[in-house]
Amino acid sequence: MARTDDALARLAARQDGVVTTGQALSLGFSGSWLDRRVRAGHWQRLHHGVLATFSGPVGWQASARAALLYAGAGAALSHRSAAYRHEMLDRPPRPIELSIPRSRAVRPSAGVRIYRREPMPPAFGRLRTVELVHTIVDLIAGADSTDDVVGLLTDASRAGAPPAQVREALLDRPTVRGRALALELCGLAEAGVESPLELRYHRDVERRHRLPTADLQVRDVVDGQWVRADTRYRDFGVVVELDGALWHAAARRDADVWRDNAVLIARGDLTLRYRWRHVAVAPCRTAAQVATALAARGWAGTPHPCGAGCGVGRG
Question: A single Pfam family, by name (predicted)?
């Protein structure tokens, strides 16, 4: 059989510069010719039976393609690799993570992590990838903390997967670790909780000290511009802003000050601003301050201590 160089070039172009030896042999190229290309440094062997038809660095997409070709029928990018494809991650993850049907077995290969699944989650795309909601559930199953789960749900919503859809996928996966917690957090996310810090405020400051329940992510027009409050006690004119970043540039801090001042002038709302350590490290002290602000604005309720060492409501 005569080899067809143009056909091989077209195939490689469709596959991110990667081909299998089986594909090349089917186009008439000999095994010895392929070996010579690799030995001369024109091509690279990425996995057993998988070749990059170029020299130099192998980018993430070519690596992902090579892994899929190596894993064979039914394989799909999953877990962090799928999250990157769904634009949930800013940086390409390593190793390449794949899922394959449990009925198949693939030998380990450098730079590839393989999960055998039954059933296989739905997957699609030119670079076959597990769909978004099932990717979220996969990542939830491997999350280390509640904060990580909230962060994943936040990323899922921003990537186009509402918490209700994630909840449905969780209900179909009864063996997922931490499933009950994830289902509860889906409910909180639907209510407006958008970050791990907001969850901690809602849970550790507000609920555990029996403070009023605030409105979350309130949008309004102030001074001719749209503004959004993380947490607003509408009946008492108290706003709580939560800054989860370790630091912000001066321009961002200045914008926050201008916004807080505009809200105070336009509506008379008092803005309290807390960072991670105030909520995560000293929730009782934060609750006491919020309760004092609410009481000054007309709240007639009584805050309660969350435990033996809590000073809220005790003098």
Answer: AbiEi_4
